Amino acid sequence: MANQPRTLYEKIWADHVVEQRDDGTCLIYIDRHLVHEVTSPQAFSGLRANGRAVRRPDLTLAVPDHNLPTTARRDAAGRPLPIADPESAAQLDALTRNTADFGIDYIDALAPAQGIVHVVGPEQGFTLPGTTLVCGDSHTSAHGALGALAFGIGTSEVEHVLATQTLLLGRSKTMEVRVDGTLGFGVSAKDVALAIIGKLGAAGGTGYVLEYTGSTIREMSIEGRLTIANMSIEAGARAGLVAPDETTFAYLKGRPMAPKGADWDEAVAYWRTLPSDPGAVYDAVVTIDAAEIAPLLTWGTSPEDVVPITGVVPDPDSFADPAKRDAARKSLAYMGLTAGTAMQDVGVDYVFIGSCTNSRIEDLRAAAKVADGRHVADGVTALVVPGSGLVKAQAEAEGLDHIFISAGFEWREPGCSMCLAMNPDKVPPGQRCASTSNRNFVGRQGPGARTHLVSPAMAAAAAVTGRLSDVRNLVTNS
Amino acid sequence: MQPVTHVSGKAYPWGQKNVDTDVIIPAHWLKTITREGLGKGAFETVRAVPGNIFDDPRYAGSPMLIAGDNFGCGSSREHAAWALADMGIRVVLAPSFSDIFSGNAFKNGIVAVVLPQDAIDRLIEVAQDQPITVDLETMTVTTPYQDRFGFELDAFRRQCLMEGLDEIGLTLARDTQISKYEAGVKEHRPWMSGDRAHASTSVESGGRT
């Protein structure tokens, strides 16, 4: 059986089995653990209560992102500004104290490399192909873009990993999501992600690890792959993988925490053995033609509620499933939309460009290209929130901040910001937001907030026109 | 963890599909550093609507919740399980659960019972005015009308739930095996070790975006 073709997932799994139990579940070793302020305090309390240590602080990296305000963190004289919300401040203090007490590397709120945990991991070379990586955050699936088996865990599991560097897991089923062909003008990785979720449904990937394959994925940058893998969880899949290739190696080489010298060569040699073997069998296969993907957006309150920008708000009665009909009616009521309305006739109040899905340098470049020489429409509040301090510095070196600021966008400090309504950046009740984030759930961006998920270029297009707009009408194909 | 073997009583006959963890507990409740007291934030947006199921006196204090497909999707926040536990929920019954939520529920002594949609539909009907019973010993859900639905549960999870076992303690007992695995990695994939990654660098040193 040794020569039986294996998938990327099966190879990573096999190399991380500490032991297999009689029922088939395995104790799986965890190579990398990212920690943030929101889902870790109770885990550290648990360790303290039981007198337990962190087994491998050297494999653990902490950075605050979720509830950190994205306004200036220092005053004009360079002194750190306090965090106004006492609960947020207490959570950040807890992370500072916990990382110090347990000897964990900590990129604090004022560090140049601070950012969203899923932006920082790849950027620092902490995320590596063929590793198992976890974090108490469902969008940990993002790291699969580099060929790491990466998934979100709950706080009890955070505690379990801190204490044992392992998790007890059952094997997942595998699904190949093959995307072939060339993306059309104005179509980005975000549109591919939305197309996949639209096709699979919000629960279609439950129980599966997805592997994204095909020429479209191969030709995509790491930034684009991160966007797609990030949203695996929105199709219900806990993890999504892209096989490591030359693009991956070029991205990682020289990053601060990536292997160096002879270690690098050894690592690359190992990584080259990881891609799925020809003839490897997946439990399910889904194919998507890249040429058929238009710029997409969501109309409802589930990420599966996807429609092309040229489309209309669907009629709930058009759905075959009675439960979906009912859900669609509720969604339209919440979203303040009427069936049959052209998506491009819908006005927006807020635009959010950021989040672990779309806050990397390529995302900001795509948005800046649309914003350049234009201005945010009257009555629209538009935020650009870089994914990390390093992304921010890079964008500023390229002059993107000037483009955004002169176009009337707010240029913020790195963090999760308006993705999840647990820091001061919120969409007010009843207001509508074109957002590059990953979830359009009820109340996700604030109580009563109405979210349309879009790509960075589409978000910028909405900002400058004041309504949901087809970016292809605003930029030339050059 | 509180052992759970048998739960009998009222159930919220909800049936809602795709209930995400933002709905179970909105993010502004996540700024806590303890596990307690989240019940008051549970289903906040649902409870904002008059006549909602959670404030219906007929179901007040139910230890069970009946939901639709994909319960607990979205964010990995364990606060969702803590909030359910705090409001007294010991069992959630649904046709399917998100992978992360079912793990979180289990770690907090909440039984996630998977049943086919027709069984869920029947239980929603019965639970309008009758109690239901979930038994981990026999792995069945029963009603006063003699309905009897069998369900499956991972053997390890079932044992942990029924005995209230501490999973971390169980894994720490495998220390020899974990150390042996680590020694193997050190030999065959030394670049994987965090020590080397840290030795040559500081995370403060910048890098590329």
Automatic annotation (TrEMBL), chain A:
Q: Which UniProt keywords apply?
A: 4Fe-4S, Amino-acid biosynthesis, Branched-chain amino acid biosynthesis, Iron, Iron-sulfur, Leucine biosynthesis, Lyase, Metal-binding
Q: Where does the signal peptide begin and end?
A: none
Q: Which Pfam families match?
A: Aconitase
- The segments labelled Disordered in the record are 63-83
> InterPro entries in the record, alphabetically?
3-IsopropMal_deHydase_lsu, Acnase/IPM_dHydase_lsu_aba_1/3, Acoase/IPM_deHydtase_lsu_aba, Aconitase_4Fe-4S_BS, Aconitase_4Fe-4S_dom, IPM_dehydratase_rel_enz, IPMI_cat
The entry's free-text remark on the cofactor is:
Binds 1 [4Fe-4S] cluster per subunit.
Q: Where is the Aconitase/3-isopropylmalate dehydratase large subunit alpha/beta/alpha domain?
A: 10-466
Which catalytic reaction applies to this protein?
Answer: (2R,3S)-3-isopropylmalate = (2S)-2-isopropylmalate
Q: To which pathway does this protein belong?
A: Amino-acid biosynthesis; L-leucine biosynthesis; L-leucine from 3-methyl-2-oxobutanoate: step 2/4
The cofactor(s) it depends on are:
[4Fe-4S] cluster
User: Which family does the entry's similarity section mention?
Assistant: Belongs to the aconitase/IPM isomerase family. LeuC type 1 subfamily.
UniProt function note: Catalyzes the isomerization between 2-isopropylmalate and 3-isopropylmalate, via the formation of 2-isopropylmaleate.
Q: What is this protein called?
A: 3-isopropylmalate dehydratase large subunit
**Lineage, please?**
Bacteria, Pseudomonadati, Pseudomonadota, Alphaproteobacteria, Sphingomonadales
Q: Which gene encodes it?
A: leuC
UniProtKB/TrEMBL annotation, chain B:
Catalysed transformations (reactions): (2R,3S)-3-isopropylmalate = (2S)-2-isopropylmalate
On the tree of life, the source organism's domain of life is: Bacteria
Q: Which residues form the Aconitase A/isopropylmalate dehydratase small subunit swivel domain?
A: 1-117
Name the Enzyme Commission number(s) assigned to this protein: 4.2.1.33
Q: What's one GO MF term for it?
A: 3-isopropylmalate dehydratase activity
Keywords of the record, alphabetical order, are: Amino-acid biosynthesis, Branched-chain amino acid biosynthesis, Leucine biosynthesis, Lyase
Pfam families, per the entry: Aconitase_C
| HAMAP family cross-referenced by the UniProt entry | LeuD_type1 (MF_01031)
What protein name does the entry list? 3-isopropylmalate dehydratase small subunit
